[in-house]
Structures are given as C-alpha cells and as structure tokens.
Fold this protein.
Amino acid sequence: MLNSSISAERVAGRYQLIQRVGGGNMSSVYEAQDTRRGNRTVAVKLLNTEHDDALKQEIFRRETRALSQLEHPNIVNVLDYGWSAEYRCHYLVFPYVPRTLLDEIERHKADGSHDWCWPLMRAMADALVHAHSQGIIHRDIKPSNVLISPEGQPQLVDFGVSFLKYELSTGVTVSSFWSTGYASPEQRSEHKADERSDMYSLGCVFYHMLARRAPPANGLTPAQIDTLPAQVPEQLKRTLRRMLAPQPDGRFQQTVQLRRQLDLTQKFELLPEVYLLVTDRARRDLFDQGHIEQPSTLAACEFLLEELGGSEPKEVQLSLERGDVRLLTGALRLICARDASSPVLVIKAVHVPYQPQLEQQKIHAAAFRYLWQVTDSLAAAIPSASASATLGATLDSLFEQLSTHQVTEQTARRRSVERKDLTRMWEAVLAHQQTLLDAVPRLFYREVVRDGDTLLFTLAQPAPDDLPWPENAPVAVQDPEHPQAASYVGHVMGITGKALRVSRDIGDAHRLVHPAEQLPSPGLIGVFQQEAKAALERQQAALNVIRAGVTVNPRLPEILRDLTGAEFDEPDGGLEFFQRDLAEDKQRAVRQALAARDLFLLQGPPGTGKTTTLAEIILQILKVKPDARILVASQSNVAVNHILSRIAELQGSQGVEIVRVGRAEKIGHGAQVWTLEQRMADWRTEVLARTDGVLAQLKERLRTLRREHKANQELATNVLDELLECQSWLEELAGELEEFPHLSGEERQQKSDALAETLVLIRGMLPEAAQGEALPQLAAEMVRLSQVIAGLLSPAFPDSREARQLALVERWRKIFGKQEEFARPILERASILAATCLISGGFYLKNQEFDWAIIDEAGRATAPELLVALVRARRAIIVGDERQLPPMLDEDLTTAPLARLGTTREELAESLFATLVAQGKDEGLPTVQMLTMQHRMHPAIGQLVSTVFYGGKLTHAVDAREREHGLPWLTRPVAWFSTARLQRHAETRQGQSYYNRAEIDAISRLLHRMEYSYRELGARREVAVITPYNAQIVELLAEITPGGLFWQALSIEVATIDAFQGRDRDIVLYSTVRSNPQGTLGFLRDRRRLNVAISRARGAASGG
C-alpha cells in the first residue's frame, strides 16, 4: 500500500506529487506537476500494491486499453501511463480537473432549480453511448467519477474496473469492486455487468442530482422516484423508472435508446430569448414563395414562429457570413443583421435554397436553441430596460460564438485544402500507375496440361511480337466468367507461337497455386498483378486517411504541413542506457526521440550507428511502457531485420515479443525465427504437444472398448489391432499430403513414392476380401482405404461418446494454428510488429494501431510509401539520410505522362523525409537531429564523406590504425584511377545498360594484386565491387568469378549501389562505367550515389 505521506521522488522520474486528492479500493489519485511539460498540473493515479500482481496488471492493462480507444469530449483522456520503478506500481496520468459532480450537486443544494441538470444528463449519456459503441463498459459510474471541466462540461473518468464486453470470459473480472448505492442489482449479486448495468448506475446518478441526496445503499425503488420534487417532469420520472428497473431486461437495451429519451429534457430548459424583426422585404419574400396566403406582417410572423418551433423551439443552424447571420431552418435560409440601436436581429431576406445546398451549408454551421420571438415592431420587441440589457447580452454571446465557429470552420477548410494539396499529386500518379497495370494485355488459352513442374498452355492465337510482358514475368490465370479472381500459377519460361510454358512455383506458400487439373480451361492468362495493385491500393488508402484527417495521431496531417506544430516533452537527462558505451550524439538523439509527442526526424549519415540508436530507443520505450505496441518499418526488409537483430542482441534471454510480417522468401533466413508463420507454427507445435496425452488416452480408451466388444463381431484381436494401426497411419498421411503444395518438385516426388509404398503396405494388411482395386491417385486411394477400414471397424464398436470426442480432438488438432484467425492473438500480444512500409498496410496490419512507429530508410521511400506506416501510429520516429539514395520510382513513370500530370520524376524523387528535414533545419526546430559520430570508415574516408556531403559535421570514433588496409603498394585509404589514357576506355551500350571493358580489366588486375598481397600477409578481406550498371555486373562476374577457387584471401561481392546501401566491406572498388566524348553521366550525376559507394568502405575505397 502506498504511504500516506508524499514522497519527494517523482513518478517515472517525471511527475512530482503534490497532494492526495482521492482514491479507492485499488488506487490513489494525486495532484501532481509534469516536470517535462512546463510543470503543468496533472492528476496521477497510482495502483495500490496491496493487490496481487496478476490482478493489478490486469486492471492496468484493461484501463489503459479502454482509455486509449476512447476519444470524446465528455470522457477524460489519458495523457501518459506506464510503470513507476520509484513507487513499484503502475501509473496513469490525466488532466487535472479538481471539481466533480458531487461539488456541482452541493453548489445547487440550496436552490430548487433543475435547469443545470438537463445538459449534464445528456452529455453523460453521450459519453456512455460512445464508450459502449467501442465495446467498453464502465461498471463504476458515480458522482465522484464525473469531473466537471472549467467550461462546465461533465467528463466521465476512472475506467479502472471497466472491461471489454466481448472479452468478459477472459482474465480477471474484478466483480467484487462496485460502489454502494450506484451498483446495479446484478453487480451486487456478483453477476456480469453490461450496458444495462451502466444505465442503472447512471440512473442512480441522475436521482442524486435531482433529489440532492445519495441513493440508498440497497437500491432505489419506484416509490423513491415518486418522491422527487414536483418540478421534475413526469416524463423524466418514467425514464428513470425504466433505467432503474431491477431486472436488466426491464431497462433500455441500448444506451442510444436512453439518449433519445433524454432529448425530452430540452423542453424543460429555460432558453434565452432572441427577437427577430420582420421587414417588408422578408414579408414579400414569404408571400412570393407561397409560404403565406396574405401579404400581411401578422401572417409572416406566425409562419416564421411556427417554422422555428413555436412554444417548443427547434434546434436550428446558424453561421456568420460577411457580418450577417444565416439562420437555416428545414427549408429556408434567413439572412439577418443585428440592429444598430436595438437588441434584435433584422430579417433582411428569406431564401428557399436548393435543398442539397442547404444541407451542405448546415454541415458547416453551428447548432443553437433559443426561444425565438418574431415581431414586426421594435417597440413591441423591447418590453423593459432590463430586458433590453439581457437581450443584448444574449446577442453578444451569440455573435462571439459564431465568430469563434467561423474561425474554426475557416481553419478546418484551409487544412482540408492543404491536405488535398499534400495528396493530390500522388493521387494522380497512383491513378496513372493503375491505368498502366490495367492496360497490360492478357492472352486467351484453350487448354493447359501439366508436365512435371511445368504447365503448358495452348493459346488460341499466337502471342503478339510486341507483348509487353516482363522477362520471367509472374503470371496468373482467370476464368473468363469470373475475371475478377486471378490464381497465381508461376513464371513464364518462354512463348513459342501458340505454346506458352510456365514454371510452377510450388514453394510460394503466400500465393494460391492450383493443381493443373483445377485451372479453368479455356481461360485467360496474364501478368500476375496482385502485388502491384495491392501496393497501389495501400498507398491510396494512406493518402485517403491523410486527406480525411483521420490518422491515429489527429495532429499528423497538420504537422506534415508545418513541423512547428510538433510537440515535445523536456528530454529526460537522467536516462539510463542499455548500451553503456553509447556515444554522446546517440544519447542526445535517444533523449530527444523519447520526448517527441508527435514526430521526430533523425538523420543517419553513413556509419553513424542509426540501427544501434533505434534499438536503444525501442528498448527505452518498452522499459517505461512494457505494453506499448511498436511498428518497426522500413523501405527494405534488410533494414528491418538489422533493427530486430540488434534488439535481440541487446535483450539476450529476456527478449521482447517480436512478430515479423511479410513474405518469407523476401524476409530472409536471419529473421525467420520472428515471422508470423513461424510464430504460428511454434504455437501449434506447443499446443499439439500439450494435447498428445489427451489424444493417446482417447485412442487407448477406444481400443479397450473395442476389445471388450470383440465377442460381438467377427474380427480377431490381432486383426482389430492392425486395423486400428492402419487407421492411425492414414490420419498421419493425410497431414503429410496437405504439405504437398509447399514442396519442390524433387521433394514432392520423394514424398509421393514414400506415400505410395505406405498405402501398398496398408492395403496388404487388410483382409483379402476387403483389399479391393487400388486407385491411381494417392489422395483418392487414401480416402478409399479410410472408408474400407471404417466399414470394417464399425461393427466392432458403433458410434460412441469416446469416438465423437476423438473425432472432435483430431479435427481441432488438424486446423489449429493453420487458419488466419489464429494470427490475431499472436499479433495482439506482440510488443514489436515489424514489416516493410507497404506490408504494414497489408492484411495483418492494416487495422492495427500503434503507440509508436519507428521507420528506417525513410529517405528511400516515396511519400505514399512512408505514409502507409506513418498514419497508423500516435507517435513516429522517422530515420533516414536524404543525402544517400533517393526513392525508387517505377520505370513506367516517364517524362511525357508525368508532364501531363503536372509533375516530374525529379519532383517525385524528392522524399517526404527530405522535405521535412529541410523545413526543420530552416526553422531550427528540435524535431530534426543528425547523428554526427561515424564508427565505420577509416578517418580519411570519413573526412572525405563529411566534407563533400555533410558540411564537415561528422567526427570519427575509429582510429586510423584500426582501419589500415595493410597493402604496402596502396599508400592512401582513398585512391582514384582514371582509364582515360587506356585503349578501349570508352563505354559500350548493351540494350538499356552499359559496360566498360577497360574498367573491368583494371578491376580484375587490382583484385589479383590484392589477392597475392593478402596471401603473403596471411590475412583475409571482404571486397565490394560496386557499379551502377547491370551490364557491367554481368561482365565483371564473368571476368572475376568471385566464387572461384582462386580467391583464397578475398571474399568478393559484385552488386549495384542500391544493393549495398546499409552494408559495408573492408575494401570498396567503385566502377563508374561511363566514359564518352560528350561527358554524359546519366543518373550518375546524382552525387548521392557516390556518397553511398564510397561510404561502404571500412579500410579503403577506390574509384574509377
């Protein structure tokens, strides 16, 4: 239990407790100061430690989860939460609101008015409607759990004993914690609570407000409701009786029904008066429009009064337009102006607008309820001087509210336009890409036959010579009658005339691959575009979310437009780092990133340790908030894997729960242990192991029962045992057969042979008369044998409870962990979900929300790609380097169509990360920070990179001796070789690419010399040969043969610049290829490629 005295220690090193202001069975609430937010006053709730850990943690998990889903003006919002090591308990932080509904009731105790009650009642019901729509039950509604804001608005607080109504049967129910006098009968009798229980408690609160006294401990009765003051309308008493019915079925079944009933309280409110003066122009308008039969002012006044609700005023919409008030009714628009000398609104004109236009105007107007008085005489409108002052004050308040609303609406419209500007260009580009995909032709085929791992399609017509299918294109087939469904079948091997050969990719488990005999024939075959279309759809969905302003962080669209709106806490100077040797620049970055409440941008120049920094940030988040959900994303799978590996390395045996989402063949072997598929397989293995004993017991029980009944059938005991054994074999073989689609051709053939032999053995164990004719298809033969054995066993032991139980367990074991719904609990309990940016918008993650998004390599992502991950998180840390490689654009985005769209490739290649970084630096914002200490390169290489690309800001953590390359004939770490004086130094064009024979020969000689030198030194080195052109790679591989036996001292890799971003080697040789009289460099003009190439080297870099 917490001490009653206030400790000097801060909660979570941040919140200084001032005084205890409340508490209950499970918690204590303190007024506190947030020392990282300008010492603003907050309420800190500490869960008492007298309850056992399991209960305490369950309460905490549920409260934070419930509150995180609730965003409503009448529900208090959670500012922060986590674990306080200082107080050894969980904590929650809320805005500090000192007044409660109890204070409000006490304030009105002496007066007999109930007008103050009605708006509070409706607002509290609104809050419950929202909470219940999210599946959340409060369970402890009472006046002390209703705060009253400075504006007089009620705010429901303390969902500490609430739980999700769809999860009532799991975990701790906390049924014993309810408040005397307010708990429903079912709660008092230890039954489960639901929406109707909250309505009962709310009815008790209403009673307390109206009676000015608390309800009795044993519950309210109809007689007690009848004793309410006579001023309480009978309609409301009827509503209270229904809310307080002893049985839940007697109450409103949904809170929204109660809310509708409470609308009647609007009739009881004392409304302020507003006078409308009818002018001759208004009278003529009403007569001309046919609203009144006589052109008299009396008829005009009577009509308008009825239009506004008469004695029961309606809610109407008002807006301010160029100083005039627009009053919008069901069908009319009244243009009114404030009279200069009297407190009245003068009706200047009456319009009958087009109804859709009127409804649109209402959307942007504000709703008001007044007691309207319509007159044609100023003298009649002002009965007294005091009334004149009151009417004037009412109009002052009205115009003030309308002015505020006008500013809010103008701001909202401006932001909407800005959001459209942010998305409009990319929406047009994505639409253009979709058009290009739709234009790729499909071919009609007459039949398809299978030849091993190859499918042979016979086309109806020879394929066109200019067929725009990519080489080795993935293809899918469609049924002409159902063209919307495409089934992936493999990759094109070749097309000759009418013959189209396709290689079957059986190992692609993520794609649906049908047996050849199940493919439609005839049908359509075309390029498989599901992945490309899915990528476009995910990017478009992210743009839609930004444009609509419905991001998880509601401030994100505005912040992307103007970084000055990003909020920060004070950085934690006392942070204890997991990596004690973390350099100072990384420490500063970690502190600033953790202080971000919206967005933080981290520049990571080559070798500065951004992966190490991100791992530290993630572990720090989870240290403070162990239940935080973090999305780790990047433009590439390699970068995601690097972050996860570093986290795992730092965590050791106490690893956090990680789930890696994506295609297994793209994720790579190093991260397979975290894949969703592996997690599901591990779970399945664990659960099956737990049920092995149950299965064995059921089978043994059946065997025993069948032996007991052997006297009633003709089978001998040994035959019965053999049949039971055969039945078990067939069940196991059925599982193996399911794995066939995921096996390669050779593996599948081996399995088929083994299966066929086992089936022959089983058939031979059957009584001769029952063996029958074997079927050629393995699956069909298995079914036949299963039916034969079941027929032989059925007389031995008819259907029984045990047999049904066994069948149920076996069916459950067969499907457990193999269906998509089994992924949900794995995803929900994971702390870190990792995927590429585009995959984060896919099936498994598209409906997930995250506390943090950590996005690496943001400089390589286009704006829509980055937004796919960004829109899903409350806070985001975006990491990249705008001075390395830019975003990859599709080759189909050529100059002419982009010009028609009003953009260029250069404009599209400007990453959102680069744009934000430039804005942050221009304005000197804390949102942007750069890592400055590099740990990879020889200081000479690092200094070159720093000077040329980073304004000399990089420092070097490595000593030159640590990075010596050891070659006596290469005196400098950086060397440039020119081939200009060599014969045949010019480039050679090959298709759409280039190669340079002179550079190939020079690189080969250089590598051979290195090989001999390092052999003599007894050393090994990793060498990267980097070149931007694929034709050069092909020629280099043929010349060097990196995997050949000659290379004993060198481990050589030849690849493009793009393939090497994020990686390093001891030595880098950079082949630029281009050499021509015109001095044309092509895309090599982009200096960022040179930055990437040089900075891959740890010890030596050479370019030519």
Observations:
- The first helix runs from residue 53 to 69.
- Residues 161-176, 506-514 have pLDDT under 50 and may be disordered.
- The chain has 35 helices and 38 strands.
